[in-house]
């Protein structure tokens, strides 16, 4: 006599969570558990975890030939997320738990040898897809809060296989109560812009970048405050919308550390070291994990000491800076990740860092300076909207008598007002304007257009940087509450395009 049970689960493929049907078949023959359906190492090892967990909980592991098929067979399966589904499928096929209790429920979870359930990554994307399919989701207790972030999700949670099986026997499996999430807000611990003394022009550039969603390059000597400015950008950005917060949580969910619900609604801030590889930056690997640019989605990616990054690593930023997405193709699979991040980069003006400083410390030769800057390609610099020189702060600006600096809250109010204008007018921030939308919503006045055309004719701008300069000018107009891009706005935007300002 043969027995068959079917359990639903989800595989992880980037941000996608594909439906997997776990079919468990028991038949006479040499005892053993065989898992088929393109399982990778962690899935094949599930047979030992499942057998130990079932017997530890006091249930009988069938002394039969057990075949577990993970369908569809051509979809790669990885991770320990199928442990619980396989265990419940074996118990249902052998008649030790009622199989009808598993109908319409998708199951995720890793098993400890003791039967305890451990959390798995990718719970939120799985919950979103399960809700779309009209199914409930059963997850380990540690993943319950994350799964409940999915709107209208029906979530069941358990901490131990034995307790779960008893609840199924007694028909006592109860859904986790939904807890309304708070509206996304600025993190209370975000550094305040009031900590930055002096640097009026750099603060202005930071505000412009925040208002229009522009990328920003800070060039200056050591200790000028470049890192401080970058760390304070998230604090002057508007709060995330609920949809954006859900996207950020879904991306964090598939990362190594998973998503902590206490960070709900906080904009991500990522600052990888300059030794980071291309895979670490854009994602990839054998199991196609998201990289720093995806983990910074709807947040800030800060690259300090920009020329110290490998040039080939930096070049991979060019496409996502334009499109806001990254597609990773591997032999076995392809994954598409969002990457709508705001880039902030910092660098020294020369190898020693003191070019243009009034102290005259710099002794770098023109050839050394040229080689240093050549580490960053022209096409990448072309894609950075705002480029500003950050000079060394004078002692008088640090003393007690120095005027208090403006707080993040006051700057954020202006940023939010400018963003509101943009979203109402065109439905996106100015940095994302392109094609006909750019011509329609960022059309300059005659004087402003003549100024930009003159800069283009003198080869100060490429076609790409011309349009980026126009987007920045549109943001300046929005900050002023102006309906038209004036010559003054265009002139200020042009000042933010020249890296050569670092020459002093």
UniProtKB/TrEMBL annotation:
Q: In this protein, which residues make up the domain named MCM C-terminal AAA(+) ATPase?
A: 288-390
Alphabetically, the GO molecular function entries are: ATP binding; DNA binding
The record's family statement is: Belongs to the Mg-chelatase subunits D/I family. ComM subfamily.
Keywords in alphabetical order, please: ATP-binding, Nucleotide-binding
Name of protein:
Magnesium chelatase family protein
Cited Pfam families: ChlI (PF13541), Mg_chelatase (PF01078), Mg_chelatase_C (PF13335)
ATP-binding in keyword set: yes
Record-linked PROSITE patterns: MCM_2 (PS50051)
The UniProt entry, under InterPro entries, shows: AAA+_ATPase, CHLI-like, MCM_dom, Mg_chelat-rel, Mg_chelat-rel_C, Mg_chelatse_chII-like_cat_dom, P-loop_NTPase, Ribosomal_Su5_D2-typ_SF
Q: List the Gene3D superfamilies hit by this protein, alphabetically.
A: 3.30.230.10, P-loop containing nucleotide triphosphate hydrolases
Organism of origin is: Fontimonas thermophila
Does the keyword field hold ATP-binding? yes
């Amino acid at each position: 006599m043969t027995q068959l049970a079917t359990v639903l689960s989800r595989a992880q493929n980037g941000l996608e969570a594909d439906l997997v049907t776990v079919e468990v078949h028991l038949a006479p023959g040499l005892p053993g558990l065989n898992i088929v359906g393109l399982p990778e190492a962690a899935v094949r090892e599930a047979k030992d975890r499942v057998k130990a967990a079932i017997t530890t909980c006091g249930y009988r592991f069938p002394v039969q030939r057990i075949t577990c098929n993970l369908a569809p067979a051509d979809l790669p399966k990885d991770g320990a997320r199928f442990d619980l589904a396989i265990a419940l499928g074996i118990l249902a096929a052998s008649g030790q738990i009622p199989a009808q209790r598993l109908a319409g429920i998708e199951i995720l979870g890793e098993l400890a040898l003791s039967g305890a359930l451990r959390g798995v990554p990718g719970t939120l994307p799985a919950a979103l897809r399960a809700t779309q399919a009209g199914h409930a989701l059963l997850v380990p207790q540690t993943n319950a809060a994350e799964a409940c972030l999915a709107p209208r999700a029906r979530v069941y949670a358990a901490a131990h296989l034995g307790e779960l099986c008893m609840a199924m026997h007694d028909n006592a499996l109860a859904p986790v109560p939904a807890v309304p999430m708070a509206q996304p807000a600025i993190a209370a611990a975000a550094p305040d812009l009031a900590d930055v003394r002096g640097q009026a022009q750099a603060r202005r550039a930071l505000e412009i970048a925040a208002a229009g969603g522009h990328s920003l390059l800070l060039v200056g000597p050591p200790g000028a405050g470049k890192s401080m400015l970058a760390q304070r950008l998230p604090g002057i950005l508007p709060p995330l919308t609920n949809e954006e917060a859900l996207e950020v949580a879904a991306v964090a969910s598939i990362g190594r550390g998973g998503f902590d619900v206490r960070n709900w609604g906080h904009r991500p801030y990522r600052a990888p070291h300059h030794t980071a590889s291309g895979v670490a930056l854009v994602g990839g690997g054998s199991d196609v994990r998201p990289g720093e640019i995806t983990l910074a989605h709807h947040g800030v990616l800060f690259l300090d000491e920009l020329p110290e990054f490998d040039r080939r690593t930096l070049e991979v930023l060019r496409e996502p800076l334009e499109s806001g997405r990254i597609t990773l193709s591997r032999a076995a699979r392809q994954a598409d990740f969002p990457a709508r991040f705001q880039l902030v980069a910092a660098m020294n003006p020369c190898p020693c860092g003191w070019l243009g400083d009034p102290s005259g410390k710099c002794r770098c030769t023109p050839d050394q300076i040229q080689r240093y800057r050549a580490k960053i390609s022209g096409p990448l610099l072309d894609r950075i909207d705002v480029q500003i020189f950050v000079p060394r702060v004078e002692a008088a600006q640090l003393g007690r008598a120095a005027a208090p600096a403006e707080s993040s809250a006051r700057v954020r109010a202006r940023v939010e007002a400018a963003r509101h204008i943009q979203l109402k007018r065109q439905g996106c921030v100015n940095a994302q304007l392109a094609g006909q939308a750019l011509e329609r919503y960022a059309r300059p006045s005659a004087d402003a257009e003549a100024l930009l055309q003159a800069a283009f004719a003198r080869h100060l701008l490429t076609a790409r940087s011309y349009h980026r300069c126009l987007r920045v000018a549109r943001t300046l107009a929005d900050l002023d509450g102006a309906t038209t891009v004036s010559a003054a706005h265009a002139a200020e935007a042009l000042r933010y395009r020249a890296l050569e300002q670092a020459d002093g």
